[in-house]
Amino acid sequence: MARKSDMQVHKIKAAVLRKRGGPLKIESLEMEGPRDDEVLVRIVASGICHTDIDFCDYWEKSDGPVVLGHEGAGVVEQVGNMVKGVKRGDHVVLSYQSCGRCRQCRSGHPTDCERFYEANFGFARLDGSNALYRSGVRGHFFGQSSFATHALATERNLVKVPKKLNLDVMAPLGCGLQTGAGTVMNSLKVAKRSSIAIFGTGAVGMAAAMAARIVGANPIIGVDIRPQRLKLALELGATHAIDNRRDRVASLITDITGSGVDYVVETTASQKMHGLAIDVLNPRGTVALLTGESGATLLEGRRTIGIIQGDAMPQLFIPKLIALYQAGKFPFDRLVKFYNFSKINTAIADAKRGDTIKPVLRIS
Known about the structure:
Elements: E1 9-17, E2 25-32, E3 38-47, H1 50-58, E4 66-67, E5 72-79, E6 91-94, H2 103-106, H3 116-121, E7 150-154, E8 158-161, H4 167-170, H5 176-187, E9 196-199, H6 203-215, E10 220-224, H7 227-236, E11 240-243, H8 249-257, E12 261-266, H9 271-279, E13 281-289, E14 296-297, E15 303-306, H10 314-326, E16 336-340, H11 344-353, E17 358-362
Parallel strand pairs: 9-10, 9-12, 10-11, 12-13, 13-15, 16-17
Antiparallel strand pairs: 1-2, 1-4, 3-5, 3-7, 3-17, 5-6, 6-8, 14-15
Helix pairs in contact: 5-6
């Protein structure tokens, strides 16, 4: 690895969180790098994920000021000496980080990386260093911190994409959309004609609905409290929609299927909805929890499983999603609303109110 004294220092701008709940403030920072195994990416766009928003709301001052963002897309500006897979000028989408060395990573299961939490939520490289230390700010969120004009990544958490693609549109693929679609296709391996209910039709739930349609599930039941989202879910993949504000979810699912459902994708993080998800399962059915909870085996072979990133290897799964998008089968662009980087706090507020499904910041 290059020594600190050997590394370049780059002037960047980034949205810094200094107070719980925000607002984020765009500041000028100094960033060292890239190291021999790193790639410097000029960020063109970054999606805003609810993980970013939740972190803003629950940030602890003891953690120090941080740069969030983990759905970046951009152009490679510089590569370290050990990097072989990309070169200057390549277009890339950024995703989650992994160590690349543990047994799970070596066997092709980076979502089960033994150092997953450190690599993605540690706000440092895995050796504890921080490229933004000169500015008294911490980065490396999900191995990127993409709420910035520039970010550092590695070959483990970037995916080269064709230059003809619009990077503004591609940005959200690295987390939320990958998680929703991957849950259906990889984690649950939903089969044709299986029944599935999706609790929460935000970006992750919509991606799950689109993926369910692709694999031939039927019925596909979207459950939400926002009529406009349910209407869009019906256009993108759901066969039925249930408004949880007034409808009796369990009885309507029984009316639709004649029993329960084979799968539930639970995105809401509500304990009430978690319990309901278990109640509406068929025997031997599965609830996929996208909120970090562990799985368990229940009566009649029912089970819950915790999902991380849809069990997706980004270098394989993101190109698959792009191919489906190009074929018109995964129209995730219909979820996106664009915001100028300077309007990041407006974008977050719109997402929290439910006015925008997937905000994407246009950064450079």
